[in-house]
Write a structure and sequence with these properties.
By secondary structure, the protein is an alpha+beta fold. The model has no long low-confidence stretch (mean pLDDT 88).
């Protein structure tokens, strides 16, 4: 639904087709927009990844944060988790078919951000 502002005959402004619930973009951002979520999906795209290896690949994210994001992604059906019967026990994560549907726009986002001016991507408030 496309919301827009309309002006009535006496100059009052009102929103036409206003969103009464999260729009599709907001729904998508709530699922995949969390910090490290896209990175996790990107790093598990090529096959099963052990938790500690994933933590090594994602610099700057704590293991606690990675664990939280992986649990969310698993609950949403974007990644699967398997506990391997090895000594010591290992846990591997793999992207699901649903998770693969996000890879196209994550790749587009990667390409877009690689083309941004360096100062824009590192600027902090």
């Amino acid at each position: 639904m496309d919301a827009k502002i309309e002006i009535d005959g006496v100059g009052r402004r009102r929103a036409a087709n206003a969103c009464t619930e999260p729009c599709a973009i907001e729904r998508g951002m709530r699922i995949i927009g969390g910090k490290w979520t896209g990175s996790i999906l990107w790093h598990v795209k090529d096959g099963p990844v052990r938790f500690n290896d994933l933590a090594r690949m994602i610099g700057g994210a704590s293991k606690k944060m990675i664990t939280e994001r992986l649990r969310q992604l698993e609950d949403q059906g974007l990644v699967s988790r398997e506990v391997c019967d090895t000594a010591p026990i290992t846990v591997v994560y793999e992207i699901t078919d649903l998770g693969r549907t996000a890879l196209g726009f994550l790749d587009q986002l990667r390409k877009w951000s690689e083309g941004l001016p360096e100062g824009l991507t590192t600027a902090k408030r």
